[in-house]
Amino acid sequence: SRSINLAVIPGDGIGQEVVAQGLKVLNAVLPQDVKLETKEYDFGARRYHASGETLTDADLADLKKHEAILLGAIGDPSVPSGVLERGFLLKLRFAFDHHVNLRPSRLLPGVATPLAGQPEIDFVVVREGTEGPYTGNGGTIRKGTPHEVATEVSVNTAFGVERVVRDAFARAQARPRKKLTLVHKNNVLAFAGHLWTNVFNQVATEFPDVTTDYIHVDAATIYLVTDPARFDVIVTDNLFGDIITDLAAAVSGGIGVAASGNINPSREFPSMFEPVHGSAPDIAGQGKADPTATVLSVALLLRHLGYDDEATRVEAAVSADLGERGDTTRTTDEIGDALAVRVAG
Amino acid sequence: SRSINLAVIPGDGIGQEVVAQGLKVLNAVLPQDVKLETKEYDFGARRYHASGETLTDADLADLKKHEAILLGAIGDPSVPSGVLERGFLLKLRFAFDHHVNLRPSRLLPGVATPLAGQPEIDFVVVREGTEGPYTGNGGTIRKGTPHEVATEVSVNTAFGVERVVRDAFARAQARPRKKLTLVHKNNVLAFAGHLWTNVFNQVATEFPDVTTDYIHVDAATIYLVTDPARFDVIVTDNLFGDIITDLAAAVSGGIGVAASGNINPSREFPSMFEPVHGSAPDIAGQGKADPTATVLSVALLLRHLGYDDEATRVEAAVSADLGERGDTTRTTDEIGDALAVRVAG
Ligand SMILES: CC(C)[C@H](C(=O)O)[C@@H](O)C(=O)O
Ligand SMILES: CC(C)[C@H](C(=O)O)[C@@H](O)C(=O)O
Question: Which residues of the sequence carry a binding annotation for NAD(+) (chains A, B) (predicted)?
């Protein structure tokens, strides 16, 4: 009989509430014969304040025993900016080599967008997750003086670029439109830009049925608001991906419905799935948080583990729920219950 | 009697057409006693193809004799990507130390925006122009092999950050709302982020009447589409500024109306004013280009040279023209004529 061994990291703020709904839906959608084992971890602000720790080697060894990780949200105003981001979120991405940062954007029926005219939006951003300006390379001299110099080094390797570009081509090939757009700034960042463009063009020869396209990152932000329908799959650098996926989430209904996967396709390490939104401490504990983004992250998790039918059922349940939502105000729990009923039925 | 000694660079594609309208309006708005001297330069694709040159030391020495530069657009598909960008546009910004890259965004009456509900948009981005990831620092090893490593180094100095932050504070102080937002990614790019944040907070103490704010660049793209009215003045890094000003132009009516100034506030070198749009070779020579962005760049030029009343008149003429434009289709020349009549009247 099959089983899923899942690490659960509720985290801070609304994390606890939304993760509970994600698990509820996961339990409801899984076939009877699949045994779901979960272990909860207390990472985040509480743990940091109690022990000063964010993510230790022992923690990583524990997490590594699981097949996947479901995370709610990490971050609290009581912790200095950057400490949990670099000490937990990024540390985990790098330690588990989450090089495919997957961020789908679909404007679902019934969901409000800031764009006029309710455009068609259905694309996926494949953001590189382990290189670029996120490596922590760089430094500071003469700190705090009028002669301070601070550098940030974006590190890009053929190995790192090729694996994520290849993954993106495969994802594009599996979609009806079969289109892949490289987003970079190769006219200015010529060293990294040349590497990305060259690898992209080389890998393209192996996927002759995929249509390719190149857009500078600045122009990409224009298209995301004037013509988002032009995108199918986008592959991009870590920092450009960070920026355009927040914009993509905003135009396709907001971060309340944006899901993401930090994926290691080789499954050598567990992949992590999380809503794009943060911990929203202002509404925490009030049952006001929308668990939809977490539930959609559960769908990504299911697909990653090979439960394609179940993933599709979760996505269909979310679409149906959003389509019928109208102006009703429901609690976090009520939305979770409604989705659990839909996927079970 | 007063005079303006202007270098004119029509450049490629629609550059010639739009610059002609900019000069027409400039001539019409200047008081009789101001003598306008212009000298035209042939930089761009033609010069590159004829001589292989983009911008020589002798060119820079010639340009330096002028008080300001008006540029149409540089770039053509016949020139490899990056050659004119780095060999001309960026070279000029660095050679003339254009550290204040000024990009106002106003949603003018009658102008279409991709955003629903016609929000109020009236902010200015002060983009740093001589540092960050634009310095060309970095390199490549093992080029073209599976072991290639390419780096890009973002260089940030206290000197460079402080002067642009100070300029932005002064601009914010001169505006009714007196609000300045720092946009960066200091939770991830900790070296540069610390320098920017620290300098920003220090300079803030000299401007106690300016309200300050900090937003990560990814979140800034969300606010630009969901709540652009929250912004008054934004100060940011060279690359973040490149990205968010294209988005800002898109939401406030498109690059057809977006103006920019590459400014050296000390006037040690001539500042350069140009529309944000490119050379649009597909519509070049057909009288279809909208010269509005160039005319608004002329307004920035006038204000930089101390002709505040004239700048205001140009902006008012553009607002009035856009407000009454409706569905009429006019040629580049007709729009320029209409604006020239308005500023003269
Ligand atoms: C919290 C932060 C470190 C993170 C990032 O920059 O990647 C976030 O913005 C994201 O997109 O997941
Ligand atoms: C053409 C390019 C070099 C330039 C930049 O990246 O700065 C452009 O995008 C801009 O914003 O002026």
Answer: 278-290
A192 with B151: Cβ contact below 8 A: yes
- Order of strands across the sheet that contains B35-40: B35-40, B3-11, B68-73, B271-275, B259-263, B100-106, B122-128, B233-236, B179-184, B211-216
- Report yes or no on B107 lying in a domain: no
pLDDT-based confidence at B183, cuts 50/70/90?
A: very high
- Residue B345 predicted with pLDDT over 80: no
% pLDDT > 70, chain A: 100
pLDDT for A240: 98
Interval A97-109: pLDDT, tens: 999 999 999 999 8
Residue B220 predicted with pLDDT over 90: yes
Could you report the per-residue pLDDT of A234-244, keeping only the tens digit for each?
999 999 999 99
Q: Count CB-CB contacts under 10 A for residue A175.
A: 15
Same domain (yes/no): B76, B122: no
Q: What is the pLDDT of residues A244-280, one digit of tens each?
A: 999 999 999 998 899 999 999 998 999 999 999 999 9
Q: Best of B81, B89, B101 to mutate for ligand 2, by most ligand atoms within 8 A of CB?
A: B89
Q: B250: which 2 tokens?
A: 């898109």
- CB contact A189 to B (< 8 Å): yes
Using pLDDT thresholds of 50, 70 and 90, give the confidence band for residue A328. confident
Check if the beta carbon of residue B221 is closer than 8 Å to that of residue B247.
Answer: yes
Q: Say how many domains are in chain B.
A: 2
Backbone angles phi, psi at B186, to 5 degrees: -75, -10
- Same domain for B94 and B197, yes or no, is no
Based on the fold, state whether residues B187 and B269 are members of the same structural domain. Answer: no
Mutation target among A152, A185, A242, A279 for the B interface, most CBs of B within 10 A = A152
Q: Is the CB of B85 under 6 A from ligand 2?
A: yes
pLDDT score recorded for residue B328: 86
Q: What's the rounded Cα separation, in Å, for the pair A219 and B246? A: 7
Cα–Cα distance between B333 and B44 in angstroms, integer?
A: 23
Instruction: Say how many Å lie between the CA of residue B111 and the centre of ligand 2.
Output: 24
Q: What is the pLDDT of residue A345?
A: 73
Q: Are A25 and A340 contacting, i.e. CB atoms less than 8 angstroms apart?
A: yes
Which atom of ligand 2 has the smallest separation from the CA of B75? 1
Rg (CA), chain B: 20
Residue A327: predicted pLDDT: 82
CB under 8 Å to B294, separation ≥6 — which residues?
Answer: B18, B19, B21, B22, B70, B72, B259, B274, B275
Please list the helix, strand and coil fractions of chain A in percent, rounded to the nearest 5, in that order.
Answer: 45, 20, 35
B80 touches chain A (CB under 8 A): no
The residue behind tokens 């009247």 is B345
Measured in Å, residue A216 CA sits from the centre of ligand 2 at 10
pLDDT value at position A93? 98
- Reported confidence tier of residue A21, pLDDT bands at 50, 70, 90: very high
CB-CB neighbors (< 8 A) of A165 in chain B: none
Nearest by Cα to A274 from A154, A136, A171, A129: A129
Determine the Cα–Cα distance for residues A268 and A95; give it in Å rounded to an integer.
11
What's the pLDDT tens digit per position in B48-67?
A: 999 999 999 999 999 999 99
Q: Which domain holds residue B135?
A: 113-252
Q: Are residues A206 and A306 in the same domain?
A: no
Which one of B190, B225, B252 terminates a domain? B252
What are the C-alpha distances in Å from A250 to residues A312, B141, B221, B223? 23, 38, 8, 9
Query: Whole-model pTM?
Result: 0.97
